[in-house]
Amino acid sequence: MQSQALDLLHSVFGYPGFRGQQQAIVEAVAAGEDALVLMPTGGGKSLCFQIPALMRHGTGIVVSPLIALMQDQVDALTEAGVRARYLNSSLDAVTQREVEDLLLAGDLDLLYVAPERLLTGRFLALLDRIPIALFAIDEAHCVSQWGHDFRPEYRGLALLHERFPEVPRIALTATADDRTREEIVERLGLHEARRFVSSFDRPNIRYRVAPRQNARRQLVDFLDAHRGEAGIVYCLSRRKVDETAAWLAEAGVEALPYHAGLDAEVRTRHQQRFLREDGVVMVATVAFGMGIDKPDVRFVAHLDLPRSMEGYYQETGRAGRDGLPAEAWMIYGLGDVVTMSQMIAQSEAGDDRKRIERLKLDSLLGYAEATRCRRQLLLEAFAETYPEPCGNCDNCLVPPKTWDATVAAQKAMSCIYRSGQRYGAGHLIDILRGDASERVRELGHDKLSVFGIGADSDATQWRSVFRQLLAAGLIEADPEGYGTLRLSAASGPVLKGERRVSLREDARPARGRRTPGRAGPATAGASLGIEEIEQPLWNELRRVRAELARQHGVPAYVIFHDATLLAMLRALPANEDELASISGVGENKLKRYGKDFLAVLTAAG
Ligand code: ADP
Ligand code: ZN
User: Fold this and answer.
1) Beta-carbon count within 10 A of 459 CB
2) 561 in ligand 1 pocket by Cβ < 6 Å?
3) Are 86 and 109 in contact (CB under 8 A)?
4) Could you tell me where in the chain the CATH 1.10.10.10 domains are found?
5) With a 6 A CB cut-off, is 451 part of the ligand 1 pocket?
6) What residue's CA is closest to ligand 1, atom 27?
7) Which ligand is closest in space to the CA of residue 201?
8) What is the largest CA-CA distance in the chain?
């Protein structure tokens, strides 16, 4: 049996070997066991039910919450020569009939269905008439109310086991949250299922967080290093999405907006372009991303703080599904902390909920201001320990400097206190720096004992101090006031000299001209390590892929992933046999596309 699984992996999917726990999962399900699979995004969950479905007698029924997700997987399977279809509300009646006929005739290896369709009497009656290989419940966290994507229809899926007790079920999710996992087991009756828990680490994602100084300039610099690559830029508000997308487009970036306030038609169009074209940057609220299966998203940028560590993990996790280097980058500032604190304080939620939200925010702020390995902190948030610093986050790559900021903290706190705990950071900094602005004079704050006691530091340094004090809870934002800062219960010991404060030194943004290495056109694919000399062939390979994708009406990555093109670029296969040995080239794709790619490769070789 094991060799049958491997054979299918080679011949259908073109991959040389299983990853992580895939093989164990495939064997268990193929043998008829139930399984609960917890694996991060990009870990390779799909093969865990696709291969057993091919091994077992009958059709594999896959429950999936999103139409876009079904289409993607069915496209990819069809390209690989697997007999797969989907049934959902996007199909007309004639096509639905056609799919049902295929199902009844035993001509389908895999059928993807939306949960609400699966649970109709009509569909269950169809299932009674055919052999079923397995039930796969994808995105299983949708059954959980605690989780972030609750779908009431998922609740009904418990029925599958009662009605088809002999059919194995495999539930899969990338949710790292413990409570959600337990709810899945409970709701789907998977107490007896074997659990396969993978590490939630995403080693190919590099994490970076920077204080916001000049957001636009910082974003442009960041995007410069990712020219020609697909990525997502997350913003908190719809307005900011629209503004950011507009000025990026003006600056020559292929940027499109996406948020719930746009017409459904516009949203679909933008999503399609993001999926199908190479190198589109999606500027979006969190409304975008769930079920986006695009493997070659090279970066996720956050211009605002996400809601929680879980949210941050999910959002950044959309980068680098293909395992190639990808970047998660975030900027944040004093304003975010104030806004988020106010949003929590002013929300309608009860006190318990607010306390939880506050804890979630604190853990995120701890991450943002951390001086140690970010990967360790991120995984610790999900109760997983990562033994050594990772070497692939900003803090590991360039360890931040810290400084004894006790005196600065005392000055900042005194300034808050002496001016009556009624002002925001801007005004407080004017007082500290001895800047007798009109407002300072009007309020008589140039007469305060704290006036000018912080003239030795500039405004940027003071903002950094206020931000970090706020993030650490050493001062707090008045929930009612507009960014008003006040002392907190933790301020006292610092003011009395009982507690020392250590802060990180914010890196200064590069000033003036860019460094010469960054001038000139950056090469597309720079973050994949494509050298300038390889550029012409890389572009040719991508051109052939884009052309084939257009002809077949599928996204480029359905033809071949970047990882596969990259392997071709490096190995320069000269004939069909050599091409067949490239990871990602299965028999069907070899037949369909081999010639086109070999033409380009042999011309270069
Ligand atoms: P998930 O659903 O867990 O996010 P996918 O099933 O979409 O992940 O797989 C992520 C990527 O890894 C896909 O591009 C897939 O083709 C690739 N992949 C999965 N398993 C293997 C493997 N054994 N060898 C090589 N690539 C794999
Ligand atoms: Zn690290």
Assistant:
1) 15
2) yes
3) no
4) 402-504
5) no
6) 44
7) 2
8) 89
The CB of 41 under 6 Å from ligand 1? The reply is yes
C-alpha span between 153 and 119 (Å, rounded): 8
pLDDT band (50, 70, 90) for residue 179: confident
Task: Check pocket membership of 196 for ligand 1, CB cut-off 6 A.
Answer: no
Give the number of the ligand closest to the Cα of residue 398.
2
Q: How far apart are CA 261 and CA 282, in angstroms?
A: 15
How far away, in angstroms, is 305 Cα from ligand 2 center?
20
Quick one: pLDDT at residue 90? Answer: 87
Question: What whole-number distance in Å separates Cα of residue 438 and Cα of residue 547?
Answer: 63
Can you name the CATH fold of 205-397? Answer: Rossmann fold (3.40.50)
Rounded Cα distance, 263 and 246, in Å:
17
CATH fold of 2-197 reads Rossmann fold (3.40.50)
* Residue 43 Cβ contacting ligand 1 at under 6 Å: yes
Distance CA 104, CA 130 (A): 6
pLDDT in tens, 231-257: 999 999 999 999 999 999 999 999 999
Angle at 33 between CA 29 and CA 38, to 5 degrees: 65
The number of angstroms, rounded, from the C-alpha of 322 to the middle of its chain's C-alpha atoms is: 13
Measured from the Cα of 138, ligand 1's closest atom is 2
DSSP state of 211: E
Q: Is 19 in the pocket of ligand 1 (CB under 6 A)?
A: yes
> Ligand 1 atom 23: the closest Cα is on which residue?
18
Q: Whole-angstrom Cα distance, residue 148 to residue 306?
A: 13
Asked if 239 contacts 247 with a C-beta cutoff of 8 angstroms, the reply is no
Q: pLDDT tens digits, residue range 454-493? A: 999 999 999 999 999 998 999 998 877 778 999 999 999 9
Residue 406 amino acid letter: T
Report whether 181 contacts 175 (CB < 8 A): yes
3-state secondary structure of 112: strand
The two counts, helices (H) then strands (E), for the chain are 27, 17
The closest-lying atom of ligand 1 relative to the alpha carbon of residue 43 is 3
Span(s) in the chain for CATH 1.10.150.80: 530-604
What CATH number was assigned to the domain covering residues 530-604? Answer: 1.10.150.80
Q: Which fold has domain 402-504?
A: Arc Repressor Mutant, subunit A (1.10.10)
Mutate to test the pocket of ligand 1, among 15, 172, 581 (most ligand atoms within 8 A of CB): 15
